[in-house]
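FORM 7B: Structural annotation worksheet

SECTION A. Query
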Amino acid sequence: MDSLHQGLVKFDEDGIQELSDLTGTDLTSLANRIRALKKADGRYDNYGGICEGASGNVRFIIETDEIKAE
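SECTION B. Predicted structure
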């Protein structure tokens, strides 16, 4: 039970508080930012140009800090 409690405290500090710091208490603004990113992602289909009539797609790999298991 103590491990669960510590995990929830860590999740709050490292996850929820970080999101709150970015968006304040209004989670609607966070949802709007995520929707805008998703919409922009759908329109992005090439890196440097594409011939008329051709199609393409782009995938991004996002590097993050290591998640350490305790």
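SECTION C. Observations
The chain has a mean pLDDT of 80. DSSP finds two helices and no strands in the chain.

SECTION D. Sign-off
Analyst initials: ____
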